[in-house]
Amino acid sequence: MLSLFLALLESEADRKQFIEIYEQYHGLIEKTAIRILKNQQDAEDAVQNTFVQIIRHFEKTFEIDCKNLPFWIISIVKNESLIILRKKERVAALEVWDNIPVDAESVSDYNELVQLFSKLPETYRAALEMRFLLDYSGKEIAQKLGLSESAVNTRISRGRTLLKEIVEREGFSK
Amino acid sequence: MTDAEIDRLMYKVLIDAIALDTENSDSPEDTFQPSRRHSEQMRLMLKNPLRWAKNRKRTPWQKAGRLVAVILLFISLSFGLVMLFSAPARAAVERWIVEWWQTHIVYRYYGESEGALPRYELTGLPEEFTELERMETPTFTAITYGNNDSERISFSYTVMTQGGATVFVPNGDSVSEVTVGKGQGRLFIPQDPESLTKLTWVDDEADIQFTIAADLDEPDMVRLAEGIRREKRK
User: Fold this and answer.
1) Mean pLDDT by 10 residues, chain A (174 residues)
2) Would you give the distance in Å from CA A90 to the centre of its chain?
3) Could you tell me which chain A residue has the CA closest to the CA of B5?
4) CATH 1.10.10.10 is held by the domain A93-174
5) Residue ranges of the alpha helices (H) in chain B?
């Protein structure tokens, strides 16, 4: 059943790479998890779930630029922590998108664009990260975030449209 | 800009947004202090990442506990509703029914069962699996088998008695009918690779519903189910 995503990591070289990733980033993963969850047991679950996802998407560790790898990993641990929080219903379900397009009007350079995306409502950002950084399907994201598939598609579509509108208006790309 | 270019830019923006968060998120008061269990998990992971990832699931004890809680909940609910449903009339023609809800599947039991719940065991276990834990109540038994690599198989069975029910929450699982011995069973193949495959079937003669949860494919699940054996009374 897991043979699909476990096709990689079978060679000694892959295992070595995995161990290197663990040694280099486990501190970062643990720190991120405990910062978000503030509970040791939950943080341990998030850390372990993060490593499962890293193993699952191991081929991506070869594709991602070295300097971006820690942020890709943070995205995983952050979202695994969010899933745990949502399961425990410690996160408010109500998220407002309406202010975002208004804020977007003042974006005039790339740094402001990044700032805008860093302030997206939590599940909007999580859905975008799961889709664009981890290649999850809509169904998978829905399952992880406890949302309907159409709610996930709405979030992804709004995020893409927002980015497209800003880029076309300001005429920059990076 | 093409869609592909937007997607590439989105990737970059999201990565940079995480980098920005990281710059602003220093909180030295939170310290991660790994438990012995976590350290052991990390040791197993580094020893064999594939196997560890495959086995990394909710513990069988949590699953068994949740199953018992669900059964108890339904027992109490069903007793409360017994007058409304006029269950004895239905029990005259059927001992159990399956209710398909939007989010869950309920096996609801009718009629009374007599005698003590027999003891069963799995005889067709994969190599190196041994019984680790057995939880028994008068109407329900849950057994956990495991091996040294932390792989687990959970086997549970419950007597089908008035007011009782077993609930399955497919949560996106693919659900199909399979033949177990001379009867029909239902197989739940999870979409989530971290979840276990479940097989449930009813022995109408014994008035018992059995469930196995394991990380095995369909033929092995069925083989395991067909290999259950009733222990002789001591």
Assistant:
1) 47 86 94 90 93 88 87 92 77 69 86 92 91 90 85 92 89 64
2) 19
3) A173
4) yes
5) 3-23, 36-47, 49-55, 60-85, 87-91, 218-226
User: Are A10-91 and A93-174 equal in CATH topology?
Assistant: no
Task: Count CB-CB contacts under 10 A for residue B74.
Answer: 19
First-to-last C-alpha distance (Å) of chain A: 40
Closest Cα partner for B178 from B211, B201, B209?
B201
What's the ipTM? Answer: 0.84
Give the residue from B10, B62, B187 with the most A CB atoms within 10 Å of its CB, the best one to mutate: B10
Interface probe for A, chosen from B20, B50, B52, B192 (most Cβ of A below 10 Å), is B50
Asked if residues B15 and A71 have their Cβ atoms less than 8 Å apart, the reply is: yes
Beta strands in chain A (DSSP E): none
Tell me which of A68-77, B64-73, B116-125 is least confident: B64-73
- List A residues 18-57 in contact with B (Cβ-Cβ < 8 A): 18-19, 22, 26, 30-31, 33-35, 38, 40-41, 43-44, 47-49, 51-52, 55-56
User: Domain A10-91's class?
Assistant: mainly alpha
B148 touches chain A (CB under 8 A): no
Contact B18 A132 (CB under 8 A): no
- Domain positions in chain A: 10-91, 93-174
pTM flag (> 0.80): no
**pLDDT tens by residue, B122-135:** 988 988 888 888 88
In the block, which residue shows the tokens 């995995």? A18
CATH architecture of B55-230: 2-Layer Sandwich (3.30)
Let me know: does A47 contact B38? Beta carbons within 8 Å. Answer: yes
CA-CA distance, B98 to A54, in Å (whole number)?
39
Whether chain B has a CB inside 8 Å of the CB on A78: the answer is: yes
- Residue A150's identity, in one-letter code, is S
Query: Which amino acid type is present at position A93?
Result: A
Q: What is the dihedral of CA A70, A73, A77, A78, to 10 degrees?
A: 70
What residue type is assigned to position B227 of the chain? G
